[in-house]
Structures are given as C-alpha cells and as structure tokens.
C-alpha cells in the first residue's frame, strides 16, 4: 500500500526499518474502519485473535500471549542516554550505539515472511498543542488493533504531524518472543524506542509507557512541562462546578478504580458526580492563566481484569462491553464470552485458560486468567467519561494526590505544607508487598511519584524539574496531598472501606483547596481532624476508627526516613539540595 505522507523524515525512517526487518510487504495503517475490519478478519482466520459473542460483546476479541510474555519487564528495560549519569541510578543503561549494535541483529530479517505495519498515532486529542505524534512499526496485528483503542491512529495523526520531524520513532518486532533476547529500550535523546521479542501490552504498545511516560518525561523536562503516571478525575459539586484532581499510585493500588469512582449515597443524593479524564497518564502544561492543565494522552484503558466486577468498578466493567480486546483472561467456550477471577462466583466449566489450554472453573485448582490479564477498552465506552476528555486545552488541576500501599505508616490522608514539601512527599512514596503477592510481606519498595519504572532520565533531575515547575506556578500551583487506603489492623484486615468511600477523603482534599476545611499541623504535614472526615452511612467506621487511621507513629516515620536516606544517597550530587533539606527538616520535626 502507498505511503500516507510526504513527510521525508517519516519516509526515510520507515525505509530504514524496512531494510533492516525485511518484511514481505509494508502496510500503512490509515485508521479506516474498513482496513481495521479486514485486519481483524485476518487475525481471526490465522488464530491470532478470537472473535467473541457479537451479541453479548459486540466488537470484542480475545487473545492470549506466550507463557513467558505476560508483563512489563523492568529488568530488560533500558534508558540509553549518551552519558550514564543522565539515565540515573534507578534506570538500566547502556551506551546508545552499543545497544543499537547489540539489537540490530535481532531485528535483521525478523519480519521475513511477515507484513510490517506502519502505525502513525497521536498521543492526546487531535488538534491539541500538547499532543505528540509517534510512529510504530510492528509485525503484530494485535498491536495494531490495541493501538487503535489506546491512541488516535492513522491519517489524522499524520495530519497532526505535518512536515515536522518531532515524532517518536518506535520500532517493534515480535521476532521469536525469546525472553533471553527481549529488550525494551528508550533513546530519549533520539526520540526513539526499540522493542523486540515481546508481544505483550506495555512492552509493545509503544505509545503508552515507552512514549507517554519514559520519552515524554524527558521531553517535558527539556520543554518545561510534565508527563506523569497519574489518573485525572473531575469532581462535580451540586452547583455544577467541577474540580480536577490528578493522582499517582504505584501499580496495583487501585488507580483505575479511583479514576472511575462512584460516589457514596450521601454525596450522590446531594448531587455530587465524578468524571474520568484518564486512568494512567497525565501530560501537564502551564496554561495562559498560569494554572496547571492536564490532558490524557491516551484514548483507552489498558486495565487489569482480575478483581474488576460490578461492585469494585462498575464503570470499568461497562467500558469493556464493546469494542474491547481481552488479553490472557478465560474464554468461555459455551457462549464465547470472557471470565476472570473476581468477576463473579460463576466460573465457566467449558473454557480455555490464559495459556490456551482447556480449563474447568469448577474443578481446576489453577487460575484461569493470568493475574496480570488485561482489557483494552475505548475511553469513549466509559459511562463516566468526562465531557472534557477531548478538550485540546486540557483541564485545570486543583489538587495532586500521591499514594501507596502502607499497612501502618501513612495516614488516610494528609496535605503537604507547600509545593516543595509536596515534591518531597512524592519522592518518599512507597508501597509494601501484601500477603496476596509472592515474596515477603511488608517489604517496602520505594517508588517516587510512582515513576520508578517510567522516568526517562535521572530522577534527581526529575525532582529538580518538579521544583522548577513549582517556582513557575507560584501560588497557582495545585495543592499536594498523600493518601493511603491500605492501613490494616493487627489481624491484617483493611480498616478503611476504600473504593467509592475514598470520595470522603477527596472531599476533605477539596475542602482544603477551597479553604473550607480545618487541619492540624503535624511533623509530616497537615492532617484532617477526625470529625472532618464524613463517615455518615458507614457501618463499620466510627470516629475512633478515623482517629486510628489518622494517627502518625513517629518511630515508624523515623524508620521510614532511613529508607528515604538510602534512596537519596544513590543520587549523589544529582539530588537537589532542597530534597535533602526537606528530609532533614522532617526528621527534626519528628524528633522534637
Ligand atoms: C500499568 C502499570 O500497566 O502501571 O498501567 O503497570
Ligand atoms: Mn500504570
């Protein structure tokens, strides 16, 4: 098929990739329904994808990946900058030329006998000055169909690009799905991504983690904006005013659930509503009025399926009822629908598991869906999608929230003293492993701003960038908070009900932003007064429970500071002096 553009840089690059990968033919993805429909039929015929029940799940498909290829691979993810210090101590690094020499043989001829698809895609609404274009070459129809859901693809993306050279060059090849030779490599200084030997989600949908976080965080640093691992939601008050909040949480902390929260009855009946702008990534720029504005660069949700049900996340489940790709979940052979652990208590008996093997949900002792199985669903399907989702200017941010999974340390919610202290609060983010996960319980993994696997440059410079953004925003800066839904009692049970009831903490946060809520000053920040967390309608939570959730154990916090000390030490002189003084000041407050 003919090229879809006259952009010389695009054409030269595609030719370079073609010459290396040596496909039988090259197909440019124009984004038309006819072309995508034909690709689906081809994938059904080859067995790469399976068509689901078109009455119950119109436009939906099922796919399973190789057994050795089910998740992002952080130990095989590299940031290749000219200087090692520029990638920093928290990223894997190799010299860019060395890496390219190492990887070229893996791509050489890897598409022989296959078709190479060229996917032009736009991250962010078409027409937005904040959107950015990428091109991905791939030998996978699965990738094409997923990219169609996760980004704006085809001719419209090339129109957005025009003659510009400002596009991310993403070269993906499945090759042999060989895990020993799997590499997910970012070259931030060249605007390039090389991904080889994987066919799974975050490794191959290059617009998502690779571009919209790793490359974009680097671009944001150079260009004066921010790319963050954050959800974006709007809270509409009864008077119709909507306040937007972003939130960064490590994987497996309920980000998609919070983004699609359904308010508890007490708020619903007053007229409060919650709107979803994004569930994973926020790109934020300073707007003409000096406030910080966020767009969601993605067009869909790549959500974890297990545990998603009508109660835990009604809106996510609804989002998956049409035009959705299910990866590594159970296929119910009786009616060609899907199932996963935690969907309902009625697993199918005549089914295929994520490995593609026969599976009986009534008798099998093995899980049918992989714990990291996913749905790729169009954001437009979401019942609570924000009317501002396509707004090219984005939405103004009132508050930013950091959060992790902490059994004892962090209180339900607290506010940072100011922006600088807020950057410190984000930098000390961490999550503890739970009994539900493999490995020791209560091991703390530090995950600053939930960006540990996603920051495309030295995290010391990243913190400095945050501090600089605060300087520019001045008193227009969003207020910064921290939340923890995961405090446990002595038996290890969660104390806070979570899910929709998290709105109760959000309401305190909004109250603080509007100046209508009081707070107590503590060594770690401003804490709510127990009576200011609305517990009306909660059967298991008393004011004493809330007092417990808001308690701050100074000894635990001092212990935690030692962990932060260790993290900071890795950065040497790239650690901003401000971060060091924030830590020292916090320790001094704690030991008073
Ligand atoms: C994701 C993740 O898939 O953060 O969004 O792991
Ligand atoms: Mn994520």
Low-confidence stretches: none
Structural class by sheet pairing and helices: alpha+beta
**How many DSSP H or I helices?**
17
Morphology: globular
Description:
The structure is a single chain. This protein is an alpha+beta fold. Helices cover 29% and strands 22% of the residues. The strands form six sheets. Strands 11, 12, 13, 14, 15, 16, 24, 25 and 28 form a nine-stranded mixed β-sheet that branches. Strands 1, 4, 5, 6, 7, 8, 9 and 10 form an eight-stranded mixed β-sheet that branches. Helix 12 runs antiparallel to helix 13 and helix 12 crosses helix 17. The radius of gyration is 24 Å and the shape is globular. It binds oxalic acid and manganese (II) ion. The site of manganese (II) ion has 3 residues, from loops.
Task: Give a concise summary.
This protein is an alpha+beta fold and 592 residues long.
Produce the secondary structure layout.
Blueprint (H helix, E strand, L loop, with lengths): L7 H14 L3 E4 L4 H14 L3 E2 L9 E3 L13 E3 L4 H4 L8 H12 L7 E9 L8 E7 L2 H10 L1 E2 L1 H7 L5 E7 L9 E5 L4 E5 L4 H4 L2 H17 L2 E3 L1 E7 L5 E7 L6 H5 L5 H4 L4 E6 L3 E5 L5 E4 L4 E5 L9 H6 L5 E3 L2 E3 L4 E3 L11 E2 L5 E2 L14 E5 L16 E9 L9 E3 L3 H9 L2 E3 L11 E3 L12 H15 L5 E5 L19 H12 L5 E3 L2 E3 L15 H7 L4 H16 L7 H15 L1
Parallel strand pairs: 1-5, 3-18, 4-9, 6-8, 8-10, 13-24, 24-28
Antiparallel strand pairs: 2-3, 5-6, 5-7, 9-10, 11-15, 12-13, 12-14, 15-16, 16-24, 17-23, 18-23, 19-20, 19-21, 21-22, 25-28, 26-27, 29-30
Helix pairs in contact: 2-5, 12-13, 12-17, 16-17
Bound molecules: oxalic acid (OXD) and manganese (II) ion.
């Amino acid at each position: 098929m003919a090229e879809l553009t006259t952009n010389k840089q695009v054409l030269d690059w595609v030719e370079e990739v073609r010459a290396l990968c040596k496909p039988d033919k090259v197909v440019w993805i124009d984004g038309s329904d006819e072309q995508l429909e034909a690709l689906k039929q081809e994938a059904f015929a080859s067995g790469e994808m399976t068509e689901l029940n078109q009455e119950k799940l119109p436009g939906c498909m099922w796919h399973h990946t190789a057994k050795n290829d089910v998740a992002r691979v952080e130990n095989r993810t590299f940031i290749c900058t000219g200087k090692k210090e520029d990638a920093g101590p928290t990223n894997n690094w190799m010299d860019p030329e060395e890496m390219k020499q190492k990887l070229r043989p893996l791509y050489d001829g890897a598409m022989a006998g296959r078709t190479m698809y060229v996917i032009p895609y736009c991250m962010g609404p078409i027409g937005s000055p904040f959107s950015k274009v990428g091109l991905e070459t791939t030998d996978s129809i699965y990738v094409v169909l997923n990219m169609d859901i996760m980004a704006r693809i085809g001719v419209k993306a090339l129109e957005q690009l025009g003659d510009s050279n400002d596009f991310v060059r993403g070269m993906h090849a499945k090759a042999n799905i060989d895990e020993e030779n799997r590499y997910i490599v970012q070259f931030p200084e060249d605007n390039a991504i090389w991904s080889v030997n994987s066919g799974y989600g975050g490794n191959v949908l290059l617009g998502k983690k690779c571009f919209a976080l790793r490359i974009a965080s680097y671009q944001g640093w150079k260009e004066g904006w921010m790319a963050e691992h954050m959800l974006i939601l709007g809270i509409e008050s009864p008077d119709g005013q909507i306040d937007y909040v972003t939130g960064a949480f490590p994987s497996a902390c309920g980000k998609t659930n919070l983004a699609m929260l359904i308010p508890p009855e007490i708020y619903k009946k007053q007229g409060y509503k919650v709107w979803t702008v994004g569930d994973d990534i926020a790109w934020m720029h300073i707007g003409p009025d000096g406030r910080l504005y966020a767009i969601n660069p993605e067009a869909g949700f790549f959500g974890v399926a297990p545990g998603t049900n009508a109660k835990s996340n009604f809106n996510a489940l609804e989002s998956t009822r049409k035009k959705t790709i299910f990866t590594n979940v159970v296929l119910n052979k009786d009616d060609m629908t899907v199932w996963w652990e935690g969907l309902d208590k009625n697993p199918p008996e005549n089914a295929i598991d994520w490995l593609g093997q026969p599976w009986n949900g009534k008798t099998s002792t093995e899980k049918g869906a992989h714990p990291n199985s996913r749905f790729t669903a169009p954001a437009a399907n979401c019942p609570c999608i924000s009317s501002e989702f396509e707004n090219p200017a984005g939405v103004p941010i009132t508050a930013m929230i950091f959060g992790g999974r902490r059994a004892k340390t962090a209180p339900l919610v607290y506010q940072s003293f100011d922006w600088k202290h807020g950057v410190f609060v984000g930098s000390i983010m961490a999550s503890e492993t739970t009994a539900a996960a493999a490995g020791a319980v209560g091991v703390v993994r530090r995950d600053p701003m939930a960006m540990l696997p996603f920051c495309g440059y030295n995290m010391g410079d990243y913190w400095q960038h945050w501090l600089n953004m605060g300087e520019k925003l001045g008193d227009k800066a969003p207020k910064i908070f921290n939340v923890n839904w995961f405090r446990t009692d002595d038996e290890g049970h969660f104390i806070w009900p979570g899910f929709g009831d998290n709105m109760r903490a959000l309401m305190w946060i909004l109250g603080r932003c509007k100046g209508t809520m009081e707070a107590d000053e503590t060594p770690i920040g401003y804490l709510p007064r127990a009576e200011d967390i609305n517990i009306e309608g909660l059967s298991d939570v008393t004011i004493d429970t809330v007092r417990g959730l808001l308690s701050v154990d100074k000894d635990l916090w001092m212990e935690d500071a030692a962990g932060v000390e260790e993290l900071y030490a890795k950065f040497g002189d790239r650690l901003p002096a401000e971060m060091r003084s924030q830590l020292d000041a916090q320790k001094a407050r704690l030991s008073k």
